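[step 3/7] fold_predict: job queued, chain A
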Amino acid sequence: MKNLDIPKEVIIKCFHCGNETPMRQTGEFQWGSRDSEYSDFDFHYTYEMFACPVCHKITLRQIYSDETMIEPGWRGEMIMHSSKTILFPINSIDSGSIPPKIKEAFESALKTKSIDKNICLMALRRTLELILKEKGATKWGLKDKIEEIAQKGLLPDTLKEASSLTKILGDSAAHDNDLEIEQYDVDSMAEFVEFIIEYLYIIPDKINTYKERLSSKTDS
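[step 4/7] structure written:
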């Protein structure tokens, strides 16, 4: 990664501390079709690293542009698609197999992970409840919903336990119990909910996609 001669400042939200503030760019790396001798279309990646002036932690942003995705500009002219994504700290989950409502709820939790521990745990608990409802849970309480989905064989014992732990910490955050919450607890619960999402949505989708690919090979 190269250092820039004249660092630029960009207003970005820091998902470490929650402040939206001008950040100084400390590094940049670029690659794309222009680096290749043969390319049918123009695409380009830029990776930018910024330092937060408040918490002094690093944010990594990706800018991707692609001429195969043309879109209207603010003046009405057609321009090359360009998208900006925060790669670090992680605040999103990238998969089209996740129901939008669940994806949105989980990403909302991730965005508060390093900002407000109690809000994040409550958001993770809500994400878990949405998952269980989407999978057909009809019981009233979250504990009963977990048991119901586990009895259907959709949750193995390890993920059933992970679900129960997420409920316990989420309840503690919501009701201001005496249980002391540390950042490790929040990070762990976020991982547990991500494991559940991967098991129920992402892995089955990847397996089906590969089976279709394998079937097309064997049929040809």
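[step 5/7] annotate
The mean pLDDT is 88.
The longest strand covers residues 58-72.
exit 0
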